[in-house]
Amino acid sequence: MTIDSRTSTTDATGGVTAAAGRGRAATRCVDIAALLTPLLVFAVPSALVRAGMINDGFLLLNLCSLLVSALVAVYGHMCWHARPADGDLLCARTLTGRRTLDLTRLTKVGRLEVPGQTRTDDRLILTDAHGVRLVVHKLRGGDGTVDNLVRRALTRRPPGAGVVVSDRAAERLGLRAEVARPHGRLCPGRKIREGLVGWLPLLSVLVLTPVSIGLLLLALTLSGAL
Hints:
Largest sheet: 5 strands, mixed
Number of helices: 7
């Protein structure tokens, strides 16, 4: 079954029908799971410890619940075997199944940069009007990035489209001047100073650690372990 037969086409990955909007339910499930993970890790063990059903050592899970939530939010949308299909569709596989992104109806374009010892993992975060989201870098076979596809799709949008493009994504795509123009085709999104990108992992630890410790102490208090 296709969600939008007007934009359905055949994916070159093996005759699989690609339709705009495919995977939007999976996108929502991943987002909900990422939001609920800290709450469930906090509430369920606390209730079970208070009832005497499990050891209070399980409350230590609160120290890593925010990190797990962030990993779910990222890796749940990360894709591989991404390749274009007819009709300006981008088909890819994710941990939650196949998804099809409509490049002509992009609503948000972000950028995920994770500095490493040897190189930075640099990917685009694409969301379309159907609610489908993909975290993607290279096309299938490693024969190029998606930059040209996204850049062409964005510059073809009509004035007033209002696609939100983060400053870092605009820098990667070479669209900073286009975002600054008043036609409303592209709107400026989140802006992070380039010098802070390399420090984001450390800053994240400094922010998440106190919150995680606070959740642990609250869980210990509510469960009666303290």
